[in-house]
Amino acid sequence: MQSISPGSYPKFAGLELIHSPHFPADWQGNAITCDFRAHRIVRFGISDLAKSAPAQAGYTTKEMPDVVRTSDVTFRPIDVKLGPDGALYVADWSNPVINHGEVDFRDPRRDHTHGRIWRITMKNGPLMQWEDLTKQSTDAIFSLFAKPEGPQNLWQREQALRVLAMKPASQIESASREFLRGQPDANRYAQLNLLRSAYYGIHLDAFIPLAHSINAQQVRESISGLSGEQIAQTLSLLLSQAATAETVFADRPEKRAAFRAQLLSMLEAYVEHPHPRVRLGAVRVLGAIPTADSATLVLNVAVNNAGADPFLDYATWLSINDLAKPWTEAIVNGTWALQGREKQLEYGLNSIDPALAGSALAKIIGDEKLDFTKGPWIDLVGRAGGPQELAKLFAAYILFYGPECCPGRDVSRVKIPNLSEADAQRILDALLAAARDRGVRPDGELAIEKLYEAAPEKLRTTLLQLAGFWKTPDAPTFLTAVAGDKSAKGPQRVAAIAGLRALGGAEAVTTLTNLCSAEQSFGIRRTALGALAGLKLHDAIAQVQSVMHDAPNDAEALPAWRQLLGVQGGIDALKAKFDDAAWSKELPTPVLSSALKAAREKGHAGALLATAIEAAGGKAAATPQDMASQIAGMVKQIQLGSDPAQGELVYRRIGCVQCHSIGGAGGKLGPDLSSLGASAPLDYIVESVFDPAAKVKEGFHAFAYTMKDGSQLTGIPTRETATEQFIRPGPAPEIPLIKANIVKKDLVGSLMPPGLTGALDNTEKRELFVFLAQLGRPGPFDASKGSILRMWRLYPGSQAEQAEHAEKIDEAVPAFTMVDGRLPKEQFATAIQLVPNAGNSVIASAQFQIAAAGKTRFTLTGVTKAWLDGQPLAVASEPNPTPELTAGVHTLAVQVDPKALPETLRVEAEGANFLGNQQ
């Protein structure tokens, strides 16, 4: 689920929602938080997307002018709270050094003594009179909740609930019953509001019987005349009630069943309510009622929504996962009908844990009336199916693509009318995924060679890999023959080598060793060397010098080094070789350069290897003592002054933008640097570049994952599911690792290699560090404004339709602007060189989000032809147009002639948030 705050922001500290009569009306409901790195307090307006078109169940925010901003480096706001007088109070840590755990906690510049609390008030605005709630009666406190909005001041509301929590439960229950009895029918919402408030942690046991005394019919009557928003708020009460009832009625099944039936009868109407948050609330309540009927209602909502509302989509995903067990059990025992519910099945089984989906899949695939080529069933069997389900897929392949190849296979249960080549490929991919990722293969005897001979050309590479993973009896001779056949097509030979690695054993090692010989093409030798390293590293290292000596260039050599370093023990084994000067001198300089690049890609883990490679190339490495003196010396030089604008050019030239982002534009491998200069002392900035492994920022520690097949993948963990761990191995997109195949996880540290500034002279280094030290400070290097476009996607003119919608296609190339949003002609031209088939026209595209409908003013520089959401934008008659826009995501596209680029391209849109890396 994406953030409701479009754009790129640093990590904030503290949060308060303004609900206080002391502040202006347009501040009510605003979110106040602290950007302690940049010495500022930030305000966000919150817009209700339920009031937009199309309506959605969530909210979106718009950054408003800062509440406070200062250049005082000791101002570190870390929390904000409303007080009893309605004013806003700020906790200021008052410390010039922050940097958290990645720096020395004993740094002498840390302030261990001072701290400040500030009070922010509206000029000439009356403050509220403080009341001592501890001296008020229970009835008086209850009366604060009589109005639907509750107490005016958020502080008063929270403290009132706290005071109630301090009173005896028996007193609370009796007093609340008396209070509710005195409320008129027209004010039933106030009753529900009180109960809802009570469910946030105070005397839950006392309120359980009280809440249950209001049954579903009473609740329905109470809220029948309420607005959609009020109904949605009330559903939060029902969510607590439903979850609690499952425990309270655990030993009274009849009472529990009746309670469930009451709620389901009401929620059946609310899942179709016109207000989106009512639908969302109903879906989440259904998730707390563990029945197949609840799952049916949730899945119907999911299918009807079809992703149109991402907030509702997330709610349905959460609820169907809550209901996965009763739903799959109903499928297995036949009480949940399959016919006519194909879309619901597809959504549900794609959403839940594959381990739970397996039993349901067996039931579904066992249905002979089902054409499993239509829908997600083939892919799902690959992810969660057992041997019998996989056997049915394999039988279908055999029936249509090799009935004479496997006469012992029973294909009589396959009732599908035909199997296209595309669906056959899907079956083979599913079988391969099951074997590779889960170690599961079809029941019965398996053979591949005859199927391979009968298969269409496009299907053969997957069959070759299957032979290795299935370890079929015919695999050793069959794979060896294909891998060594110089007349075979390259992709098939490569697939056969991959099959040999999966197969393993002495025969495979012998074959792969032979394929490293000079008789073969370098491409085959390189592939065989990597596969051999995965099986027997010692034998592969013995072949490295002869194979790599013949690499035609550094680009061809680089994949081989990456493969070798991706095997457990590969880094240490290669370092031992590079320490031998006689061994190293046989490798050409371009090959050494590619080895150095591969070692540096490993970050701290490859640092010693990189040093050995540099020494082999004749370059002396700095000693640890040299490093300390380099840092101190550079800090002194920087203090003499330099040009940060030139430093920004250096930053981009050496490729920092590939791994780091500024203002949401750039790579994701390293930390965002938007507020680096405002948060980190100069010496820490220098050290982080010269010696990246010395102090690694939290969340950016890399790990080396050793897999069952002996491979070792290094990357920063990003997210995980029940079955997969995703990592970011480099500037490229994240990749998934199957958890069941991970055997070891070792901390590596930083992926940023040392020595990145080695090619810079002292002037360039000073300029770079002065630029980094300015980031986040007020001025031209302040990246906090999301209204400035900082990332374009460049498309060839032939892809105009895709560009007008900012579609992610292979031809699209990112282009990052300067911090202030300028894309100078020189940098623009460099980026365009990477656009394939650019021709006479290139289209630069970007997406932005509008929080609330209205007019948006664009300030355009260098734009002569543009489209907004696919419609022409009249920039010729109005260079700074102000179109009327709806709330939501929009796309701006600009056409340029590569031979006549503008001196500068720049776009700013008032009230917009450009999405940058979120595109």
Return the CATH architecture of the domain at 624-774.
Roll
Number of DSSP E strands: 27
Q: End-to-end span in angstroms?
A: 14 Å
Query: How many alpha or pi helices?
Result: 36
* Beta content: 5-15%
Q: What is the average per-residue confidence, as pLDDT, rounded to a whole number?
A: 87
Give the helix proportion (percent range).
Answer: 40-55%
Low-confidence stretches: 198-214
Q: Determine Rg (CA atoms, Å).
A: 32 Å
- Biggest beta sheet attributes: 7 strands, antiparallel
Shape: globular
CATH class category label of the domain at 624-774: Mainly Beta
CATH fold descriptor of the domain at 624-774: SH3 type barrels
**What oligomeric arrangement do these chains adopt?**
single chain
Helix/strand/pairing category: alpha+beta
Secondary structure topology:
Elements: E1 13-17, E2 31-35, E3 40-48, E4 59-63, E5 68-69, E6 77-82, E7 88-92, E8 116-120, H1 138-143, H2 154-166, H3 169-181, H4 188-198, H5 204-212, H6 216-223, H7 228-248, H8 253-270, H9 276-286, H10 292-305, H11 310-322, H12 324-332, H13 342-351, H14 354-365, H15 377-384, H16 387-401, H17 421-438, H18 449-454, H19 460-470, H20 475-484, H21 490-503, H22 506-515, H23 522-535, H24 537-549, H25 554-565, H26 570-578, H27 581-584, H28 589-601, H29 607-616, H30 624-638, H31 644-653, E9 661-662, E10 665-666, H32 676-679, H33 682-690, E11 702-707, E12 712-720, E13 724-728, E14 735-738, E15 742-749, H34 762-774, E16 791-796, H35 800-803, E17 813-816, E18 823-824, H36 825-832, E19 842-850, E20 854-855, E21 858-861, E22 866-868, E23 871-873, E24 884-885, E25 888-896, E26 904-909, E27 912-914
Antiparallel strand pairs: 1-2, 2-3, 3-4, 3-5, 6-7, 7-8, 9-10, 11-12, 11-15, 12-13, 13-14, 16-17, 16-19, 18-26, 19-25, 19-27, 20-24, 21-26, 22-23, 22-25
Helix pairs in contact: 3-5, 4-7, 7-8, 7-9, 8-9, 9-11, 10-11, 10-12, 10-13, 12-14, 14-15, 15-17, 16-17, 17-19, 19-21, 20-21, 20-22, 21-22, 21-23, 22-23, 23-24, 23-25, 25-28, 26-29, 28-29, 30-33, 31-34
